[in-house]
Design brief:
This protein has helices spanning about 1-25, 30-50, 50-70, 130-140, 155-160, 170-175, 185-190; strands spanning about 75-80, 85-90, 95-100, 110, 120-125, 140-145, 150-155, 195, 205-210, 215-220, 225. It is elongated. With about 230 residues, the protein is of the alpha+beta class. The protein starts with a helix and ends in a 9-residue tail after the last strand. A hairpin with a 4-residue loop joins strand 6 and strand 7. Among the domains are: about 50-125, no CATH class; about 130-165 and about 180-230, no CATH class.
Length: about 230
């Protein structure tokens, strides 16, 4: 009888030991799952903390650079320390550079790598007001040839821009260009290059005077953003 009891006890102990070992032992698959989960958590935190600031900063810089270039204005950037930089735009890239070389402690910023706090200032020139007026007139009077309907249509209609009103200041212009569109993107996206359709065919543009007169201003071509600030009437 004693032998039977001892045998039962031994079996119970063995079962308990096996369960303890199996509960504490992880397979390589378990380790990989835990690693992937921890890596994903780190990436989520990284993506959560900075992209919105980066995206907002880059958009602000891009919009104001294009506006400054098109209106013959100057763009400056002041960082959170009060240091002032020139903002350079070559048509493709935006760079923030030292205003002078007198202070070697200042570093140039690369827009695509920057998470920055500070602000931009557009400084008007003697030509700025005239360029803004040209923009207002062109947005109202320039027509784009629609190949499907065989007639000219307004920029606002063709580009899906609603409720355009005359713009008076650089700030108003920047705010207008940053407005989000129902179909996605911002207004500036629709004005960077006009007339380059899905079939990769250029089109023609006319200036409608509103009194029955009109003239073709571009044929088999595109209209760039800076062209909207030229005088076409």
């Amino acid at each position: 009888m004693e032998l039977v009891i001892m045998a039962v006890i031994a079996v119970v102990v063995l079962v308990v030991v096996i369960k303890l070992i199996s509960s504490n032992t992880k397979s390589s698959d378990d380790d990989m799952i835990a690693y992937e989960n921890s890596k994903g958590l780190k990436e989520d935190k990284k993506n959560y903390s900075k992209p919105s600031l980066k995206k907002g900063f880059q958009q602000e810089a891009s919009v104001k650079c294009m506006v400054a270039n098109a209106t013959c204005s100057t763009l400056k950037y002041m960082d959170f320390k009060g240091d002032i930089y020139d903002v350079k735009y070559d048509g493709n890239n935006v760079n923030i550079e030292r205003e002078t070389d007198s202070d070697d402690t200042l570093k140039d910023y690369k827009i695509e790598k920057a998470y920055m706090q500070g602000g931009f200032a557009i400084i008007e020139s003697s030509k700025t007001a005239e360029r803004i007026n040209n923009f207002n007139q062109n947005m109202k009077h320039i027509r784009i040839w629609d190949k499907d309907d065989n007639k000219y249509k307004s920029i606002t209609f063709k580009q899906g821009i609603n409720d355009f009103v005359d713009i008076e200041t650089l700030d108003e212009l920047c705010d207008f260009l940053k407005k989000e569109l129902p179909q996605g993107g911002i207004i500036l996206d629709k004005l960077v290059k006009i007339g380059f359709g899905k079939r990769n065919l250029w089109t023609s543009f006319s200036y409608d005077y509103g009194d029955g007169r009109s003239k073709v201003i571009k044929k088999d071509d595109t209209l760039k953003f800076e062209d909207l600030f030229e005088r076409w009437e």
